[in-house]
Structure formats: C-alpha cells, structure tokens
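Researcher: Re-running this chain for the archive, since the previous output was lost when a drive failed. Same request as before.
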Amino acid sequence: QVQLVDTGGGLVQAGGSLRLSCAASGRTFSSYVVGWFRQAPGKEREFVANINWSYGTTWYANSAEGRFTISRDNAKNTVYLQMNSLNPEDTAVYYCAARIYSSFRIYTFADHSNPSNYDYWGQGTQVTVST
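Model: Regenerated structure tokens:
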C-alpha cells in the first residue's frame, strides 16, 4: 500500500512559479510511475506529467511542455512538479498519483494520461493563479 501526500500549492500571480511535492510512504516508488493530474471546477481531471521512477523517463501534456518540469528525489522518495510561467488557466486542484508499471509492455500517451490507470492518489493541493 502506498500513501501519497501532495503539498506546495498556493496563490501566485500570473507569470509566477510554484513547486509541488509528492511524498510517498508505505513503500518506495521503485516499479512505479508517478504523475500529476489537475482538475478545475466543472472540468474533468486531466493529465499534467509523469515520471518513471526507475528510468527517469517523463511524459508531459501539451499544456505543460516547456513550462513544467517533473523530477524525483530517490533519497526523499519524493516527486516534484516545478511549474513556471503560470497563467490563470493553470488554476486547479493538483493531484499526485501513482501506478505500478510493467517493463514487459509498451505504454502509450493514452495509457499515461488516463486517470483510471492510476492506483494511488494524494489528497490534492490547490493552485490558484491570479491575473
């Protein structure tokens, strides 16, 4: 069983930056893919980015590419999402999520971006970007 705690949200002006953290307890992230999703009011939960803990490979949504960076700290068993050049459209509750991966199959972007494929979720952290 994996427990995820996501923190780091807050209120920031447009153009500003925030760094979200996702800390795991219960077990290490090895053999997991860890990602971030977000959900704005009245909208579906959408994929932001993820990282393969063992290999370090990353996937990004188009909206995050070039502005957000996902990374991991093995010693702290923590995944980070550095968000730069934030704009009001980034306002949402951000959720950390994790799922086990198999090295014997090939995953597509559809696999990575489907929230139903993730087994563990954090409680969410609010990010609000003001104009």
